[in-house]
Amino acid sequence: MTTDTISPATHAPATEPAPPADGAPTTTSDRLLALLQDGGARHRLIEHAPEGRTDIVSELRGHPLNQAAKCIIMRVKVTKKSSRFALAVVPGDRRVDLDRIKGLYQARHVSFADQDTAERLSGCVSGSIVPFSFDPELELIVDPELLAHREIFFNAAELHLSLALDTDDYRRLARPRVAPVAEPSTGTAP
Q: What is the pLDDT of residues 55-101, one digit of tens each?
């Protein structure tokens, strides 16, 4: 495992991908890393064995489970004929409270998005979804318990690469809606 620290005063390490010739990021990982660099975010890249399960990857990264940003995409059925999508981000030791999401939207029904939809909206494979939304169809909602930490951890749109990100910089760059959307985990389900 390797870790590189990035702060506004340092340059990107060799492990951070270079932008394509036209300057536009091509992958969600590239887009995220460019956002962090351009925004002067304090962050560290962490390489590790490929893993998408929050509990296992938290061990690989070496941090408490409650500092992991667990990212779940939800389908919110607002009316009989209309749905929206939300990216709920909760601490790794918690799970998404469907009733709280339902209440936030005054929705008829809330469910987990199917894998194809989640991967399309996030631009990430399952297990590597980032706590940022780069799609206007996807509203970002973060539980305040996650934001109580100085630093949060998450896969960087890659199963073998993670980020440790300063929480203040995360809030500033992601601009999430902050609302209590987590409940205690029972050891199963997101």
A: 999 999 999 999 999 999 999 999 999 999 999 999 999 999 999 99
Amino acid in position 35: L
What pLDDT does 23 receive? 58
DSSP-derived secondary structure for 89-111: EEETTEEE-HHHHHHHHT-SEEE
Encoding tokens for residue 76? 């919110």
What is the pLDDT averaged over residues 4-33?
Answer: 56
Antiparallel, parallel or unpaired: β 83-91 and 138-142: parallel
∠ CA 137-96-149 to the nearest 5 degrees?
Answer: 95
Q: How far apart are CA 28 and CA 48, in angstroms?
A: 18
* Token duo for residue 93: 């030791």
Q: Cα separation of 44 and 181, whole Å?
A: 27
- Helix ranges (H only) for 72-150 are 98-105, 115-122
